[in-house]
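Schema walk-through. Below, the input block comes first and the output block second. Nothing else is stored per chain. Lengths vary across the set, and this one has 234 residues.
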Amino acid sequence: NRSSDLMKLLFFILMPFGKILLLFKVRSVFTKHIDGRNRNPAFPEQGRFTNKDAQTICKAAMRWSKQLRQTMPKQKTFGGQQMVRGAVGGIAIYRALRDFGIEKAYAIELGGDIGYQFYKSNIDPFRRVARLFARAPSKQMDLMQKLIIKIVLQSPDYDIVVRNPPSGFEIDVLRCPMCDYFKIFGAEEMEFFQKTLCTYDWPVAEYCVKGGSFKRTKTLSHGDEMCDQKWLAN
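--- output ---
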């Protein structure tokens, strides 16, 4: 319908501006989430990260991203392409932290904090469009999910089943290109994925909509047959 087409158009107008702004934020995101934190929480005598350390890690992440993108599998849809690029960014951040000598568990924590900021920036166009068309949080959540389905969760890169119960929005994801991409790498990268990108939907639901919540009992990255997502706004 017309409103759906208009929402989609507005998303593609807002998205490039968001990408440009994000480029100017990259270094500051690394600085904010690294500078001043313990280099090793178990050994505070090792000191704290400096601004220079944060910028060194940021530059290393950019180098890893450039290298990984050269071998990134091609996706057939816009959404699949964007999500795999996000996966590339996640691995680049994690590898840059590990290259700096940060132990695995702490690198996952720091990488998750940094990656979440970029994830929020990518979800912002959906959030803004939904708020232009609806005031009620439940309606905003439904509009966001409909827009995400139309733009991101497209076949053949994604395989999904959608249900609209009386309350909330249910999406069973049977195939996820991000998960497929992480499977190319080893168990360490998959653990990073499971503990970071796979967990962002809970806080994102709260970030996007007042009273927003997310539920999931199964996860592809843990070997389940699907990610059984449910999006709500209380």
